[in-house]
Amino acid sequence: FVGRETVKIAELGQYPAILPATGTYTRQLVENTFAEYGVTPKSVIDTNYLETIKMLVSVGMGWSILPSTMLDETIVSYQVDHFNIVRQLGTVTHVRYTLSNAAVAMQELIYTSSGDNGG
């Protein structure tokens, strides 16, 4: 893929994948998208630790899907045609307990960063 900005799902299917464990949301998104195109990854290494996934990718063991915040000079990022993962994340609190100042600050940071109003 050297010198390219995008790759096709069928091309990724020819190489080993390093993905979160079966049953995780990210794994389901990848498998469902690949299935839509009739593609099965060549082989899969399972691990739920993002740092482990990143390290395995950086030493050439395969490809993966990682948050953009994990990108650095040790790995190369490509856009994949017809593949766009968007995850909706949120916070959960107990209605009977008051949040600590640290928890309130964390929620405010999350909402500010995401553009959400906290509702």
Would you give an account of this structure?
The protein is α/β, with parallel strands linked by helices and 119 residues long. The chain folds into two domains: 6-80, Periplasmic binding protein-like II (D-Maltodextrin-Binding Protein, domain 2, 3-Layer(aba) Sandwich); 88-119. It has helices at 9-12, 25-36, 50-58, 101-114, and strands at 6-7, 17-19, 44-46, 79-80. The strands form two sheets. Strands 1-4 form a two-stranded parallel sheet. It has a two-stranded parallel sheet with strand order 2-3. The longest helix is centred in the last third of the chain and has 14 residues, at 101-114.
Sheet with the most strands: spatial strand order: 1-4
Count of DSSP helices? 4
State the major sheet. Answer: 2 strands, parallel
Question: What does the overall shape look like?
Answer: elongated
CATH-defined superfamily of the largest domain: Periplasmic binding protein-like II
Query: What's the architecture of the largest domain, going by CATH?
Result: 3-Layer(aba) Sandwich
What is CATH's topology name of the largest domain?
D-Maltodextrin-Binding Protein, domain 2
Secondary structural class: alpha/beta
Beta-strand percentage? 5-15%
| Number of beta strands | 4
**Alpha-carbon Rg, integer:** 18 Å
What pattern of helices and strands is seen along the backbone?
Answer: EHEHEHEH
Task: Output mean pLDDT.
Answer: 89
Q: Which features would summarize this protein structure in a list?
A:
alpha/beta; 4 helices; D-Maltodextrin-Binding Protein, domain 2; two-stranded parallel ribbon; 4 strands; two-stranded parallel sheet; 119 residues; single chain
